[in-house]
Structures are given as C-alpha cells and as structure tokens.
Amino acid sequence: AVIALDKVGSQRFETALKLGGLDVRRPGTFGGEQNLALALGGLGLRSEDLAMLYAGLANGGVVRPLVWQENQQPKKQYRIMRESSARKITKILRQAPTPDGRVPHWLSQDTDGIAYKTGTSYGFRDAWAAGYSKRYTVIAWVGRPDSAPRVGATGRKAAAPLMFEVFDILPNSHENTAYTKIAEAPKGLGRFGGAPDPAPLIIFPPDGSEILANTFGETATGMSFAARSSISKSLNWYVDGHPVKRNPSGDIVWKPDAPGFYQVSVVDERGHTTISNIRVMGIN
Length: 284
What we know:
Blueprint: H1 2-8, H2 10-19, H3 47-58, E1 62-63, E2 78-79, H4 83-94, E3 115-120, E4 126-132, E5 137-143, H5 155-169, H6 187-190, E6 201-204, E7 210-213, E8 223-224, E9 226-228, E10 235-239, E11 242-244, E12 253-254, E13 260-268, E14 273-282
Parallel strand pairs: 7-14
Antiparallel strand pairs: 1-2, 3-4, 4-5, 6-9, 8-12, 10-11, 10-13, 13-14
C-alpha cells in the first residue's frame, strides 16, 4: 500500500478524496503536509465517507455524495479511477474469503456476489467491514463510543458477520456470479509473496466452522464440499479418514451420521493435504 501510494502521490490521493466529497480528517500531528502515513491508517473517515467510496467502486469508479431523501438529487459526482480499474478491484474483493460458516456466493443459487473489505484500527478500537453488491452498499462498524479497546474484536470476526447479515435482509438481484480465477500477479509483485502454498484451499467447510443440519444419515440432504487447487484437478475428500464419494452428478456431498466434531481433509494427486476441523449441530 505504501509503495502504491508513493507512486500515485499522497497529495494527489488526498485531493481526489476531497474532490469526491469526502470529509478527510488527519491528526494534528501531521500538520498541513500529506505523507505516506495515509496508507497506514493516518487518515480519518466517517462511515458515510466509506459508503461513498465503496459505492463508487460499484458505480465504476464514480463517487457521488450521499442523499438522505428519496426525491433528493445527488450533488456533483467525481471519477476517482478508471472504470476498468474499478472492475478489477471489484473482482478481487468479490472473491475474498467469506466469514466462517458462510458458503461462498458462487456455490449458492440466486445469491449476490458481495465485494468486501475489513479493517481493524490500532489497539482494537474500531472493527469495520465495507461491502457492496450490484444494488446495495453496506458499512458495518463495531466499537465503543469512548474508543476503549475491544481486544480480539477484528473487522473480520466482529464486523463482517454483521455486514453479511444485513445483506441477507436486503433484496438481491437473483443473478449468479461464477467464480473466476484471478490472473497471477506480475513477477515484480509476485516475488514479495514468496513461494505459493501448493496445498489445496478448502472453500467449504472452512476450518473452525459450525454447521447446522436438519437431518442425518443416508436420507439426509447432505452438504457439498468445495476446494480449489492451482496444481491439481483431481482432489479426494475424507472425513475422519473415511473417503467421501461423489454423487451421480459428480459433486462431493457428505451426509453426517450424527451431530459432533469431524475432521475434513482434502488431498490432491501429489499428496498435498489441507484439513478443516468442523462441528455439525442438529436443529432441535
């Protein structure tokens, strides 16, 4: 983030935010000089400002001031980035891992894809999540009015589940968004990440999740497992060491025998293994 801001220019970046109508606030210790600390949380924004920015990404990079009445017309809009750049960012944020226990949108029918980002301020004083679908933008903030720390309350753990619950209440567009593999980063950027992990990535069920089941045994509906691998097309699934077979459609569907704790593992053809420890609970 610091390298990117250095290329763009901190003054140019802050000016773009102000032209977009954002109420930019910086601590008094910065004086009147913009600097690279803006990339590390050295900038104060209200929830309304975040809503404008993320709605701007949904609108192809065009930021508009918020309106509070149905017949009110927005003030002058401002383009903060090219439409192509906004689409690329949306594609990345839409495929961010969902909170624990929530199925990714591309595995659910008639579910909007939510592009979102979380954040946690220094000392756990603020936990926030900002996301947008094709029709709505939602900002969730969790914290104390007196700015007292809430140790362990991160944006992902505290604010993201709340944000997704709000999206569950809102009407969706009933348009499915397929998963699309993001192209690899250029070599100049990819080298900072080190060697990629060859093990498969479990999409569902995520590690540590608690899953509700209506029925158990062979007559149960079951739950679909999903994973992706960058080096292997053939993946084998196991629950507590027992193989899980594919159904006639070719999907991996597991039907738990009873409530309890289970270890789910996926193995690729080279032996790389990933494990998720889950808990299955019945509905009383």
